[in-house]
Amino acid sequence: MNTRHLTSALALGAVGALALAGCASGNQAEGGTGGGGEKGTITLGFLPSWTDGLSTAYLLEDQLGKLGYDVEMQTLTEAGPLYTGLAQGDVDIYPSAWPELTHKSYMDRYGDKIEDLGAYYDNAKLTIAVPSYVDIDSIEELKANAARFDGRIYGIEPGAGLTKQTQETMLPGYGLDGDFELVTSSTAAMLTELDNAISAQKDIAVTLWRPFWANDAYDVKDLEDPQGLMGDPEALHFLGTAGFAEKYPDAAELIEGITLDDEQYGALEDLVVNEYGEGREAEAVDAWLEKYPEAFSTQRD
After folding, report:
1. pLDDT (tens digit per residue) in 284-294
2. What are the start-end ranges of the H helices in 35-166?
3. Using CA atoms, how far apart are residues 95 and 34, in angstroms rounded to an integer?
4. Distance CA 141, CA 121 (A)
5. Whether the Cβ atoms of residue 140 and residue 176 lie closer than 8 Å to each other
């Protein structure tokens, strides 16, 4: 794995660890949005260690700033408080949500106070992955090989939808709950375990998802899921607090017009997280916009 990828992951994990556990007043993003804020302030809530939301948050910061809004970036460490903040109006936008399947329980609870602003990517999925040198290809094969993995699957944050899907559906569905423990901590910690195992050519199984830069940074493969217990592919959405489109119609129109394919999304994430990195997100977004102006279906002056 390229060192810059791991450094970025660990830095993001450190940022996430220092973030507030609930929704409080966020800090203005460093350098501002350049829009002057004459139209008011919009708060974006995201989890820095989940780089789909990190990448699209900085994309929206740039675009909403150009529309004339001040943008506050509110970092959190778990999805639950983020959905709570969105429902309560403490956060205006969640810039990369998984509401169809992965975060369905949150939508069941808060959905009547949340507004769907549109899907920007339509092929997201949850996976169990192993290094490519591991000679098994299906989740069904894990049970007979539990000792090789020390009876562990390394996961991410305890409150993640991926954690819930793995713990409550996949493990019992494949009869693995007696043989495997899902070890949860953080995305950065999981990536560190993966990196160490690959360096030592050891067997390891981890929870991953697509799209996510780590799938390209590491030589890993998704295990086949013949029973479909990790869930079907779903779309990634922009969610707003109830009434957002009525209050900010031009912002809602802009957001609705963002549609990314695999290449466009992958380039955005790689530029924001890896090529430019922390503190240079605005430069990364500018570089991406220059290369992919067609990602927006609505044109603005």
Report:
1. 999 999 999 88
2. 51-67, 79-88, 104-110, 161-165
3. 20
4. 31
5. no
